[in-house]
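User: Please write out a complete single-protein record containing the residue sequence and its fold in token form, without commentary.

AI:
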Amino acid sequence: MSTTITTTTETTGTTAHLSDADVEALGAELDAIRAGVMDDLGDDDARYIRRVIAWQRGLDAAGRGMLQFSLLPPAWLGGTAALSLAKILENMEIGHNVLHGQWDWMHDPEIHSSTWEWDSASSAEGWKYSHNYVHHTYTNVLDKDRDLGYAVFRVDPEQPWKPWHLLQPLMNIGLAAGFEYGIAIYDLELEEVIAGRKPWAQAKDDLGGLWRKIRGQLLKDYIGFPLLSGLAAPTTLLGNLTANITRNVWSHAVIFCGHFPAGAETFTEEQLDGESRGQWYLRQMLGSANLDGSPLMHLMTGNLSHQIEHHLFPDMPSNRYAQVAPKVRALCERYGLPYTSGPLHKQYANVLATIARLALPGGAAEAGDAADPAPTVPASDDACTPLGVGAA
């Protein structure tokens, strides 16, 4: 690695020790990691996603079946648990990743980003635009990445404070419970309509599409399947509601821990000027955070516990993130960059603390705050930087 220290285009303090040559060398190494995996995809990977889909559909069928007898407490508990797991798997490991095009290389018309419609209030097409394009292009760029606070929350000190931000700790509870609906409404870009940057006619069409999707979800979970249960309709409805809330809360926690700027850096629009491939990689690495856990936990997060790797390689099949994560961590250590990772409970506690802190005007952590020290480079898995450390 070059010892000549120069500044890269609009770099941050975290990367100031890297020369332009260093940044491009890092980018080339990450390109090589990606190419090595993508060139190796084959039957084992295809069997993996088909096996996960089969398990998900089996859990869904088992949960729906048990809930037909939901007047019996064991049937209600078992059915609700199975349905909750099925919905989490469908959204996280299957839907999110299929819609990213991770499995398009299989040329399977049933498991393809152009045909998949997921069990969520958001339409696949609307979500692919707001997430795949806007978020993954402008990751953590203030005023460009709408995922920074979902157009409602103040999650970075550089975002202007508004009176409604005082309520954001309470608003966050509501968002967690109804996360699928919050994201669906967010996809409409209503703030752009209010600002006059999006035509009302287009918003009206989007609202019609959203209502059709939500109506189908409501009919399925809160009318159709409960009615099939006969006298058990009220308890079946409650089981479906509980499963949806469980899925929403879990998705909210995983996504906030991976994207929240506490412990991950934010960037300005000016920093995009002349951004090279290597600098784009740097922005993805510094703007994301991982979760530590078991293989089962990684599966249930849709492998978004490897959020850094997902942002580096969004079209790489998720089952390969665990394979490349040690290589990415080693690169971070070698190039003197933080690799932000930590257990879910600690990361989410820091997320909630930041939401509460930034509900007030100002809100930036004081210099030298023990809860927010400068980021350090981990020497091992046990020394990784927890979320909430080194917030930009």
Observations:
- The radius of gyration is 22 Å.
- Confidence is low (pLDDT under 50) at residues 1-10, 366-392.
- The CA atoms of residues 257 and 348 lie 6 Å apart.
